[in-house]
Amino acid sequence: MFLFSTSSLHVKNSDSNTLISAGCAYIKIKDLPTANGINIKYQINPNTYKKTSLQFSGTMAQKALSHNGRLRYASLTMGPAYSLTPFVELYSIIGVSGVSYQTSENINKDHSSKSVSWGAGITLTSPQNITLTLGYEGNYFKMEGKSYPSKTFISSIGYRF
After folding, report:
1. Going by fewer Cβ within 10 Å, which terminus of the chain is more open, N or C?
2. How far is Cα 92 from Cα 104, in angstroms, rounded to an integer?
3. What subcellular compartments does it reside in (predicted)?
């Protein structure tokens, strides 16, 4: 009897099916300067199964370097999310990303690469439907015959409607 009475505490959260969040991204690509950017996430539960949902995420960053050099990074990912409880959700993502790096030595030469991105994270939801998302996104870029692994750490705050 006790188990049945406590299961009704989370009814408000279980009906919420859309999440929108925005936050910051910390991007580190091997041998290149660190860049900070933004991350936007949209998640929807199609109501076919209450524990799973589909999310879309985008990350963008740009860093100006000395002598007119620059670093740009962008990614677009999507993937499933699985709800462990009404307040804790795990997600995985896969998508595409790109990097563009222009050095100060050769302003006219633009080093760029595209790659498959993958990642995972956790979303915590408060009883007031405010969310905190912590995530990781990784990929490997190839430029001039070298491999450049990339690590992106994401944190965002959002609201579940």
Report:
1. N
2. 37
3. Cell outer membrane
Tokens of 87: 């307040």
Residues spanned by the domain of 95: 16-160
Give the pLDDT confidence of 88-136 residue by residue, as tens digits.
999 999 999 999 887 766 656 668 899 999 999 999 999 999 999 999 9
Output phi, psi for 2, to 5 deg.
Answer: -65, -40
Count of residues in the chain: 161
* Residue in this structure with the two tokens 């408060």, named with its chain if needed: 126
DSSP 23-65: EEEEEEETTS--EEEEEEEEEE--SSSTTEEEEEEEEEEEEE-
Which CATH number does the domain housing residue 112 bear?
Answer: 2.40.160.20
